[in-house]
Specification:
Length: about 400
């Protein structure tokens, strides 16, 4: 626990650390992978290469510094970090590794400016945050292990079925090798997947695109050009092959109300929308389902969504927009005027997932239409980042 004197030091030096935080986190990861190569496997190296993860860590640390005297705000702020960690199986014994390397990176970047007192104060701050995350993650691990069909750590699953959804997306039905039930995830959540590729362990997150059914999970994966895991799944993995799953997690879950719902997705961002749609409809909520795809060949889950419309004709409308061609309901971008026409009401809860620029545009349109921040829910298929430039 930081002392009052340490808190004063942290407040006084926070602007200096903030100014250099991007450099510190950029230094931190290579240093950690060099000193502790065993932790490298849990990190997606593409998120290192594009700087997304170092920046997300920097923002997480700064948010904690600003909010640390408000425990409830900290808990809220850290939920997405906790989810990411839980679905990667992060363990308490890994925290000292991160702490040591973060402090070493601070020393490397700030040099003599870091006195022993400053180092102690920031070390204590890291200790407080680590303690909070470790406790919250332990709680989630225990809760999931304790529910019917839950488990601790890695659980082996077998590919029971593979389904082509469009030119670039395939679904994989994953059934547990032990033949036992699987715990229900909340609609909208994702799962952590661990694979061995060419003798190396790799981890990725995938949204669960199927509704909870107690016996298997469905993920739907877009083949990314040059992507390691997505290409391996598409090209190498077959029915009967096995992989390991970590617990499901994630905050893109349906709000607890009876308000209308609007789901807006771009490309493979449709995956969490499918279980969210079914959940909202089964609760009798009015739903508008908007999906944007490049063209008809890149439009996945068309028949599945149409079946939902047939099942809930009075509750559900759906619109698809294609960048090209006139096969869709609309050609071109999802403009604000279109969203204004489609919004079921000012009290609508809106959920959107897609490429970064798509989400920024949708967020701006919804804000301009008077949809409050707490009605705008989204998730990045990569490290979290702000939707709009500061
Ligand atoms: C919460 C969440 C949910 C997700 N849900 C889904 C989902 O439902 N469906 C889905 O398809 N995806 C989903 N994703 C994304 C998924 O986790 C993977 O990021 C995605 O499949 C790409 O992984 P990959 O291994 O194929 O590509 P990666 O190997 O991670 O590469 C991604 C891109 O970076 C490039 N790249 C890789 N390494 C480097 C380098 N060193 N230098 C420069 N460029 C590089 C590659 O060429 C490629 O274009 C989700 C992600 C999150 C965080
Ligand atoms: C106090 C300590 C820690 C803080 C503040 C922290 C913070 C973060 C943040 C902000 C993210 C990004 C979350 C998002 O994108 O939504 C993240 C992701 C992640 N964290 Fe941590 N973390 C800590 C400790 C650890 C430890 C001990 C490990 C284990 C080695 C770890 C491994 C990871 C991994 C693997 C990811 C995902 C990276 C990726 O996408 O490649 N973290 N963490």
């Amino acid at each position: 626990m930081t002392t009052a004197a340490q808190d004063a030091i942290i407040d006084a030096t926070a602007p200096l650390v903030a100014e250099h935080l991007d450099a510190i986190t950029a230094r931190f990861y290579p240093l950690m992978f060099e000193r502790y190569p065993e932790v490298k496997a849990v990190f997606n190296q593409a998120h290192q290469a594009d700087g997304g993860q170092p920046k997300a860590l920097a923002r997480g640390v700064l948010a904690y510094v600003g909010l640390r005297q408000q425990p409830e705000a900290v808990r809220q702020q850290m939920q997405s970090v906790i989810s990411k960690h839980v679905s990667l199986g992060i363990q308490p014994e890994q925290y000292p590794i991160v702490g040591e390397c973060l402090m070493a990176a601070i020393g490397d970047v700030l040099g003599d400016a870091v006195t022993a007192e400053i180092a102690d104060a920031w070390g204590a701050l890291y200790g407080d945050l680590a303690e909070l995350l470790i406790a919250a993650e332990a709680e989630r691990y225990q809760a999931f292990a304790g529910c019917p069909g839950g488990w601790q750590g890695l659980r082996e699953f077998r590919i029971a079925h593979i389904q082509r959804e469009c030119e670039v997306i395939r679904s994989f039905i994953l059934a547990p090798c032990d033949g036992q039930p699987v715990a229900d995830a909340l609609p909208g959540q994702y799962i952590g997947l661990q694979l061995r590729i060419d003798g190396e362990t790799v981890h990725r997150h995938y949204s669960l695109s199927g509704s909870p059914n107690g016996c298997d999970y469905r993920i739907s994966v877009k083949q990314e050009p040059g992507g390691r895991v997505s290409n391996y799944l598409h090209q190498q993995m077959q029915v009967g092959d096995t992989l390991a799953l970590l617990p499901p997690a994630g905050e893109l879950t349906l709000d607890n109300s009876d308000r209308p719902v609007m789901l807006i997705s771009g490309g493979v961002g449709q995956t969490p929308m499918l279980p969210l749609a079914r959940q909202a409809l089964s609760q009798g909520r009015r739903l508008c389902y908007v999906h944007a795809a490049r063209d008809i060949h890149h439009h996945a889950f068309r028949s599945e969504v149409d079946a939902l419309v047939r099942e809930y004709p009075t509750l559900m409308t759906r619109i698809c927009a294609y960048d090209h061609g006139d096969d869709g309901d609309i050609t071109g971008r999802l403009e604000q005027s279109l969203l204004a026409r489609l919004l079921p009401g000012a009290d609508t809860q809106c959920y959107f997932v897609g490429p970064g620029p798509f989400m920024s545009a949708i967020d701006s349109h919804l804000a301009a239409l008077g949809i409050a921040p707490e009605q705008r829910h989204y998730e990045h298929f990569g490290p979290s980042r702000p939707l709009h430039a500061a």
